[in-house]
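thought: user wants a sequence for this fold. calling inverse folding tool.
action: design(structure=
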């Protein structure tokens, strides 16, 4: 029996805060620690800790995508809870055994695996909302994560080092009562789309990751902070999320297409950092902090867009998000490797400028791959288009005074489902569905399914006309 695809109409703060805790933990282990150097012969590999985490995460995501039997992990609360506990314990081990580099890198790899499980787990839960609400929750979570990181940086070092231990635990505690995961009804369609996510989109995301990895290595100093001035990055990221949310929530006609343009805001932040790096080097907010903030904001854009695509098309959200982060993490890993190759030039005077220029070049290549792809453009506007239909249905339900069960039948009827299929998906008798539909027709003032569909289309067109004035 196919399972129903249901979407909640209310923003879940538990989802937003739970996902924020996972993101804050990821930002902490990636950017708020020290630059671990792995000696190899006469050279030292910088950001070895992040390399280990990225490698562990990439391997876990590859296994998740390629092994269908393991995909149930994303909806298994027990597996996600275990991942949260493992991450907390592994992080505590990195604090206690920071002088043992081999053990440190091994625990970092374990953290990477836990992050992969957590990201797919939250993808399945965020996808249970409508695309608009999922986007709200993603950007709320990113903003809250930035605020948590900034707050942690304001604490005494002895206290701040142990705060991240609680983050994955809180994340998975909040995951337990969160919305149930949405399960696609068409397995073949899901597999076909997951396997053919545009190569250009994947390449574009990968090259953005390469650019970010280069910048992360560029700013890391030997035996110094992994990302100096990350507090500034957190503030900029918080402001970015606030700007995007203001645009999404805006009722102004000129800003109704804000969701489709959110990635352009992130791109503007990134390119501003590259262009003004020479001028801002001696300031309190150097250009690389803008680049990193823009990159993290862009990652949130990717998550929101892929969740929207999965939700609208009935596809497997965890698999799409896994593929997205495979490209992101794989690109970052490659960028750190390239950055270390630059470091072997013995820190010549031009090395920083070559690294910055190369990172900017990869960002430009990513733009050419990603934002000239028609399918990505369609992904970017799908939420705005669907938002009109959702709002039209909501208004009809509210105006007609439909009950909760009648609202469920109403939505499925508008999607063209037969009475038999509605009965199957809602686990009702067909006669009960027939009764609900007759009541819906009466309350809405129509006499048939086609008139009901025409009513919804008329309401949607009215909304479009109103917002375009």
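)
observation: tool returned 469 residues.
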């Amino acid at each position: 029996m196919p399972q129903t695809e249901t979407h909640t109409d209310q923003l879940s703060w538990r989802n937003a805060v739970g996902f924020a805790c996972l993101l804050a933990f990821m930002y902490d282990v990636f950017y708020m620690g020290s630059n671990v150097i792995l000696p190899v012969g006469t050279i030292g590999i910088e950001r070895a800790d992040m390399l280990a985490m990225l490698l562990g995460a990439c391997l876990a995501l590859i296994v998740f995508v390629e092994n269908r039997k393991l995909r149930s992990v994303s909806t298994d609360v027990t597996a996600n809870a275990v991942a949260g506990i493992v991450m907390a314990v592994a992080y505590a081990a990195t604090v206690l055994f920071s002088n043992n580099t081999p053990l440190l890198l091994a625990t970092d790899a374990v953290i990477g695996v836990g992050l992969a499980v957590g990201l797919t787990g939250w993808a399945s839960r965020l996808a249970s909302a409508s695309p608009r609400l999922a986007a709200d929750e993603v950007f709320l979570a990113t903003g809250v994560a930035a605020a948590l990181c900034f707050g942690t940086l304001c604490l005494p070092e002895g206290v701040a080092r142990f705060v991240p231990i609680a983050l994955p635990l809180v994340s998975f505690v909040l995951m337990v009562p969160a919305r149930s995961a949405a399960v696609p009804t068409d397995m073949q369609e899901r597999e076909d789309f997951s396997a053919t996510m545009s190569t250009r989109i994947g390449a574009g995301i990968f090259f953005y990751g390469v650019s970010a990895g280069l910048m992360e290595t560029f700013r890391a100093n030997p035996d110094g902070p992994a990302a100096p001035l990350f507090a500034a990055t957190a503030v900029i990221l918080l402001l970015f999320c606030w700007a995007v949310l203001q645009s999404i929530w805006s009722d102004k006609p000129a800003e109704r297409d804000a969701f489709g343009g959110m990635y352009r805001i992130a791109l503007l932040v990134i390119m501003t950092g590259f262009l003004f790096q020479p001028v801002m080097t001696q300031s309190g907010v150097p250009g690389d902090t803008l680049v990193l903030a823009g990159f993290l904001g862009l990652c949130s854009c990717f998550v929101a867009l892929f969740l929207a695509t999965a939700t609208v098309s009935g596809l497997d959200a965890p698999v799409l998000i896994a593929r997205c982060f495979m490209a992101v993490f794989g690109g970052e890993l490659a960028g750190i490797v390239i950055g270390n190759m630059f470091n072997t030039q013995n820190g010549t005077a031009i090395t920083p400028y070559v690294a910055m220029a190369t990172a900017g070049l990869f960002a430009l290549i990513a733009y050419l791959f990603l934002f000239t792809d028609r399918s990505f453009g369609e992904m970017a506007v799908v939420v705005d288009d669907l938002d009109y239909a959702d709002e039209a249905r909501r208004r009809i339900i509210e105006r007609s005074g439909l009950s909760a069960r009648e609202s469920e039948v109403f939505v499925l009827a508008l999607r063209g489902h037969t009475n038999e299929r509605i009965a199957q998906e809602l686990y009702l008798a067909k006669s009960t569905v027939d009764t609900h539909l007759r009541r819906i027709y009466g309350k809405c003032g129509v006499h048939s399914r086609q008139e009901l569909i025409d009513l919804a289309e008329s309401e949607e067109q009215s909304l479009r006309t109103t917002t375009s004035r």
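thought: summarizing for user.
answer: Here is the designed sequence. Residues 1-8, 182-196 have pLDDT under 50 and may be disordered.
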